[in-house]
From TrEMBL, chains A, B:
It comes from Anaerobacterium chartisolvens. CDD domains: HTH_XRE (cd00093), PBP1_LacI_sugar_binding-like (cd06267). It comes from the Bacteria. InterPro entries: Cro/C1-type_HTH, HTH_LacI, LacI/GalR-like_sensor, Lambda_DNA-bd_dom_sf, Peripla_BP_I. Pfam families: LacI, Peripla_BP_3. GO terms for molecular function: DNA-binding transcription factor activity; transcription cis-regulatory region binding. Residues 17-70 form the HTH lacI-type domain. This is LacI family transcriptional regulator. Keywords: DNA-binding, Repressor, Transcription, Transcription regulation.
Length: 349, 349
DNA sequence: TTGTAGGCGTTATCAA
DNA sequence: TTGATAACGCCTACAA
């Protein structure tokens, strides 16, 4: 036990009180203290004594030392594509809250949408001996993920699936998210519906486009590929692509924009043009409820269950960390919510 | 050394190779291996042997075990008000990149703008025995910060200062940020300049308002307090307060909005009204260059040195972690950049 | 230059 | 129920 006397403030700071100290104070052995801490059998009267000693000394278990014995670090790694995307960080926020409650700390890494960085950071997490990992994968590098799983480190995938990886996953039903949104537009009589998609190589973007295509099939409508715009999930591309759409010879009467940043850009573009929502174009955006409420008219929007994603992922990981390997691998597909507001209108026939 | 044979894939996975294993393979003692790892004196020929053994076994130092001896965890705590604010997370992203390069992992916590959570998370970080902490404090609770510093854990404050805390800090010159922005508007002939501020109890908001006031003093202009709107740094308040400003009997001819979210809301409000930038109102926003470029006309904007804040903070902490206590406490005040675009115009006299 | 031995703060085994 | 005692993987005097 180190005692540090801060004379200038007359305050005593005690650091690193160990079980040894508690044992001495309680007049018992270290082994008994350890048992008490870990819920073993200790005489009732001794429990009181130990409890008192712990409180008085301000003892706290040294997790590092414990980790050395137990091979647990009480740490989980969280790996996301970017820390500069509010959708990702919101999910992190929820995961972190839940895990911290259970005593886990989280090492958060972002790989800046870079596949080689993704691998590096994953290696880093493994080296730091995290007990588990939650990741939004980008590369299709199931090799790496599998090597992590092979080390008996539970991994939970979120947002993006990886074909060929046997691994728990929490996904969003992106396909039906866009299916339902576009279907509403079709029901309202729209025949030419534009979509601003994300990059081809991103799982969620593929699925959202697929939903758009399938609903067209189901309603026996052919897709005009000129109405399908591929963006990069950034503000600027939403802005640019929306302008492209409305400047077409035969512009769409409705449009679905498939993430927050692009929705933002698209709204900016519309605001600056002379076309009006919903008179000239019906509009459905994605992801950010706060934004949708502020815009006039209120924006119709597809909401992803951000909170739920975090909860499910965190609890799934906690389950594995508890050693519960039942129904592995389990894949949860969460539903989005479609909020329809005045930004969409019926098309007269 | 545990060897695990994954028969189904015929792949051998070796986990936890220890120095002991390396020592055995190299025919030397553990102490020698340790010396080699830590740069001690080892015979050149033995260096080769050890190096070979390490490579073949894929040995990596167990940082946990090392930490037990050295009292270092090679982990730093990053504590921010919210993970759902891109300004904060961008800074994190930069700090994380730098620290990870030096072998440090980061435990990122957010306190959801809640003072009691802030204290809890700080305690949590201390309990996790982080080697250092970077935090954006909210509470004026210098008591807590001081207790951390008292434990010899270096702390670097960012974005927000804490009066009475002797502590390294990386700040932004918020006062002159708004001073310069408003000054430009004054130079262009504006007499009635509105400002949309953040909450009174947030350091940056106080400073930005102070800059607005001081430039008025310096130009011998009286502040019309009806032009000073207090928001909460969220989209909605930017939207609402801008509407309040333009609906005044005597509306301002120019406005400064003092963070990203409120800038976004304000732009939305303007777009939906019938007033035009810059003809009816000159506009200067804050923080997000990407947004500013997309809007038409391009937005004048105050840019905070996000990247630099992260760099300076990370390097300052690394310096302390190296044990370099020189010029403590050091406070760095970084300058913002004012980018003037077509969203501001000259007022004819 | 190398190796032996003790210790970091826990946990876990096995007698007592 | 309790308490020696031996790990866990690494570092570090000190001795060889």
């Amino acid at each position: 036990m180190n005692i540090e006397l801060n004379v200038s403030r007359m305050k005593v700071i005690i650091i690193s009180v160990t079980m040894k100290d508690v044992a001495r104070k309680a007049g018992l052995s270290i082994a008994t203290i350890s048992k008490y801490i870990n819920g073993g059998n200790v005489l009732k009267e001794n429990r009181v004594i130990i409890d008192k000693a712990i409180k008085e000394l301000g003892f706290e278990v040294n997790e590092i030392a414990r980790g050395l014995k137990t091979n647990k670090t009480m740490t989980v790694g969280l790996l996301i594509p970017s820390l500069e995307n509010i959708f990702f960080t919101s999910i992190l926020s929820n995961i972190e809250s839940i895990l911290i409650d259970k005593g886990y700390s989280t090492i958060i890494c972002d790989y800046k949408e870079d596949k080689s960085l993704e691998k590096q950071k994953l290696d880093f997490l493994v080296k730091k001996m995290v007990d588990g990992i939650v990741t939004m994968p980008m590369g299709c590098d199931l090799e790496i993920i599998n090597s992590v799983i092979g080390r008996n480190i539970p991994v939970v995938l979120i947002d993006r699936a990886l074909k060929g990886v046997d691994c728990d996953a929490v996904l969003v039903d992106n396909l039906n998210a866009s299916y339902n949104a576009v279907e509403q537009l079709i029901i309202l009589g729209h025949k030419r519906i534009g979509i601003i998609c994300g990059p081809d190589d991103i799982y969620t973007a593929q699925e959202r486009l697929r939903g758009y295509e399938r609903v067209h099939e189901d309603y026996a409508m052919t897709v005009d590929h000129k109405l399908v715009k591929k963006g990069d999930y950034q503000i600027e591309s939403g802005y640019r692509l929306l302008l492209e759409l409305i400047k077409m010879k035969e512009p769409p009467t409705a449009v679905l924009v498939t993430n927050y940043e692009m929705t933002l850009g698209a709204i900016m573009a519309i605001n600056e043009s002379d076309i009006k929502i919903p008179d000239d174009i019906s509009f459905i955006g994605f992801d950010n409820l706060q934004l949708a409420k502020v815009v006039k008219p209120p924006l119709s929007i597809v909401i992803q269950p951000v909170k739920q994603i975090g909860e499910v992922a965190a609890n799934m990981l906690l389950k594995r960390l508890r050693g519960d390997g039942s129904s592995f691998p389990s894949m949860v597909r969460l539903k989005t919510e479609l909020i329809l507001k005045d930004s969409v209108r019926k098309i007269g026939d």
